[in-house]
Automatic annotation (TrEMBL):
This is (rape) hypothetical protein. CDD domains: SGNH_plant_lipase_like. The keyword Plastid does not apply. Keywords: Glycoprotein, Hydrolase, Signal. InterPro entries: GDSL (IPR001087), SGNH_hydro_sf (IPR036514), SGNH_plant_lipase-like (IPR035669). Residues 1-24 form the signal peptide.
């Protein structure tokens, strides 16, 4: 098994080195792919409507630039996960929590805004990673049961259900951890927060192993971005030391340490879990590049943001207030494509697209494997299970 896995990674490395494609071909590629489905886990950076379904709609102007409506996303348009599914020629992911018009034939999205990796009362959402994995296990169990019960009289059911054989061939994506660090930073010192990282990584490891036990084999794991560069936090902690780029130095130090330990754990899991591929995706470097090279890339001040509240920066994007019985709405800027940050916390569609480009071409991944190459290896790996 060790020799087989070593050979497999050599193939991945060589394929990664030979892949060359333009931005347009990466995003608009319509080549056939062997990933029949995508299952996503995360927070608001990849939530495609769970919070809207569970608590209340993410209101306009969120989403209107691309979807013409809010579409449950904290951005003016598409998220990174949307660009990934587009590239794989799959539909946008239906949130697991949204029962209206749901179609799970090609995957489901368990990401929920405000979620953390670890369960904690301080987190913005009760749908931490452990809960999301439990939802997936329930989803899979119910899917298998319903799929076996359907017959010729109810063919439409199978048209919207995930196919049992696809669970082991699907891509499992993760974008979570930002809230663990951001919330921790507001309640702990830098050293205390660093000391909590091993426990966070352990919770993440437990989730991966549970999914592996359920048949998951292909994992694309995003590290956390430069949380200390979020405009909202910069305004909330004006006295905190800045680094050379103007970001919160202590918080980015913690993010770097978190990513270091996450990468090491993924390396260990690749050796521990047979016939699997766990890809570490360095989103931190991609987002940090946007901030450092903002002007060269055509962006305005990287610490400014587009969607502002009706009464200024103190009110979140899309929310309403009722001072003296008057309903007020937030608004977005006219040149939203020139902003990295959409609302002070989440990226604009333009920034999401630029980061997605680098994920899809494999340039920030370890192993350096383009997504379109990885999906063509599913049958080889699944065949070894």
């Amino acid at each position: 098994m060790a020799t087989s896995k070593f050979t497999f990674f050599i193939i991945l490395f060589l394929l990664g080195l030979t892949e060359k494609s333009s931005t347009a071909s990466r995003i608009n590629s319509r080549k056939s792919c062997n990933f029949p489905a995508v299952y996503n886990f995360g927070d608001s950076n990849s939530d495609t409507g769970a919070i809207s379904a569970a608590i209340g709609e993410v209101p306009p102007p969120n989403g209107v630039a691309f979807f013409g409506r809010s579409a449950g996303r904290h951005s003016d348009g598409r998220l990174i996960i949307d660009f990934i599914t587009e590239n794989l020629t799959l539909p946008y992911l239906t949130p697991y929590l949204d029962s209206v018009g749901a179609n799970y034939r090609h995957g489901a999205n368990f990401a929920t805004g405000g979620s953390c990796i670890r369960p904690t009362v301080a987190c913005f959402s009760q749908f931490h990673l452990g809960t999301q994995v439990s939802q997936f296990i329930h989803f899979k169990t119910r899917t298998l049961s319903l799929y076996n019960q359907t017959n010729r009289k109810t063919p439409f059911c199978k048209g919207v259900l995930a196919r049992p054989k696809d669970f082991s061939k699907a891509l499992y994506t993760f974008d979570i951890g930002q809230n663990d660090l951001a919330i921790g930073f507001q309640n702990m010192t830098e050293e205390q927060l660093k000391a909590s990282i091993p426990a966070i990584i352990e919770s993440f490891t437990t989730a991966i192993k549970l999914l592996y036990k359920e048949g998951a084999r292909f994992f694309s794991i995003h590290n956390t971005g430069p949380t200390g560069c979020l405009p909202y936090l910069l305004k909330s902690f004006p006295a905190t030391p800045r680094d050379q780029y103007g970001c919160l130095k202590p918080l980015n130090n913690v993010a770097i340490e978190f990513n270091k330990q996450l990468k090491q754990k993924i390396s260990e899991l690749n050796k521990e879990l047979p016939s699997s591929l766990l890809t570490y995706v360095d989103v931190y470097s991609a987002k940090n590049h946007l901030i450092i090279k903002a002007k060269n890339l055509g962006f305005v001040d990287p610490f400014d943001y587009c969607c502002v509240g009706a009464v200024g920066r103190g009110m979140g994007c899309g929310k309403t207030i009722f001072p003296n019985g008057t309903e007020l709405y937030s608004s977005s800027c006219q040149n939203r494509q020139n902003f990295i940050s959409w609302d002070g916390i989440h990226c604009s569609e333009t920034a999401n697209m630029l980061v997605a480009n680098r994920i899809l071409d494999g340039s920030i991944s370890n192993p350096p494997l383009p997504t379109q190459r990885a999906c063509k290896l599913t049958e080889n790996v699944v065949g070894k299970i």
